[in-house]
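The pair is quoted verbatim as follows:
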Amino acid sequence: MSAHFGTRLRKGAVNTTVAALAVAALAASQAPDVTADGQGRRTAADTPSADAGTGTVDSATGNSPYYTDLPPLKSPAPAPSSGSTTAPAAPGTAEAGIPATVLDAYKKAEAALAQAKPGCNMPWQLLAAIGNVESGQAGGGNVTADGTTVTPILGPVLDGVGFADIKDTDHGSYDGDRVHDRAVGPMQFIPSTWAWAGRDGNGDGKKDPNNVYDAALAAGHYLCRYDWDMATTAGMRSAILSYNNSTDYLNTVLSWLEYYRKGTHEVPNGTGAVPGSRSDDHPSTPTSPFVPATPATPGKPATPAKPTTPGKPATPPKPPAPPTPGKPKPPAPTPTDTVDHLENAGAASITAMAGHAYSERISARAETAAGKAVAKVRIRFTVVGDTDAVFAGGENVAVVATDAKGVAVAPALTAGEKTGDFTVRATLAGRTLSALDYRATVTARAADALARTTATALTCVAGGEFADQVEVKATYKGAVADKVAATATLVKSADDPTANDKGPHFKDAAGNAVRTLDLTTDAKGLLHLPTLYADDTAGTYLLRITTAGGASLTVELTVTAPATTSPSPDPGQSPSTPGEPPSAPSGSPSAATGS
């Protein structure tokens, strides 16, 4: 959150009692399993830490300061329309107004996430709640028509003085600081997080943390990583805490979320209300009011004393010698400062079939120069190369904290459809050290077994078509082998895999005979072969089906000759007695003459 929002409305700190009552008023609309404490405030009891089992300790903002104002006790009321004769809007309406462009950015991000990550169930009101807490909706909507802030929104320098100590990671390109990082933009991303979480939300080909469309979409993807579901309390809490690891932050965001869910309205850019109290405010100790001295009662003037004879002035003492300044004590090194290198803590290379999860997970160990483990430092794993492989949650970057043994285990990696090699690179977050590369390979989808789904004999009369179609199921290690390439060929013999030039065949779209087909198994691992036809040559033939991975199946096809028929006897001819010549037909010359 910025200390530079331009001219803004400054409010007094929220009174503790009023704050408690404000959140208590919202408790009635909480999700079923959200709890509240004795004062009606949401609690983070049983809430997963920012780690949430994933190992991530990064926060989007570097746990930078944020606005702490709570929403009004009264629910939002609709703003009166232009020219309306209705009474002025009820209290709470100003806080419910969201600048037009900022509101549009939140709603567009919600729509994009519904397509990209439907299981996340991201409500735009959550993005609005975070946007308000982080930057007061981009400083009251102080943005241009394309959503870019008129002036950059920068958080304080993260130099370890009251905040995290995050050394520069962007050479000042986003935050203008080449020594330390600062949170940037309406959603207050630190540069190291924006480097992998940034998105292009307005389609201009750039990923700009100072653009509210880009920042809102990036925030949505950040919250939805690791398959967190915003429709569940646990998922939403884990996501919010990963954005800024503070229970107070969680409670504040949840309060604004419930407030916005009860109703909001659009206000012109630049006219939104900006909160006034920040988590890094330190009010000075109040002093007592000045009380003027009481004048003395007038009386007789005192008799002036006789002046004394001045004596010799005393010899001034020698000034003490100034203390010798000591050397400034260097700050204690952080765990990150003590890391000298990263070592492989598991497999150096991993292999998986396209579309399948890798059975092994990559892990790295942070060590000092003496080889000792360093715990609680962040290691960033990045998928590098021409691949569509991703970590759990669909991201190509994951940041994981090292455990007590100095080891960070990357999230599960799933292969995409692109085959070949790529790299998973491990680097230390917060410092520049040599990277540690792991080789990952994606092999083509394969099957190791094929079997017919029926045992029906496949027969056909020469010149006809087979009544039954061939159906085959492919498996790999007993599991369904889907999307596996296969070839079906009418071969010459068991020992000769070349295509036959006679016998059964398939037909192409033009009706021509085809004896080789390229196929792919369906989602159930099935191959449905088209109808087979027979030519005029009877005999026994072989259909061979093979797949990537070496599975093979040979199916026997039988073509029978057409049935032969005897010629019918002449109806006018009588049967002869055995041993006698056949009688001549009636009317023949011999019959007429009796000879």
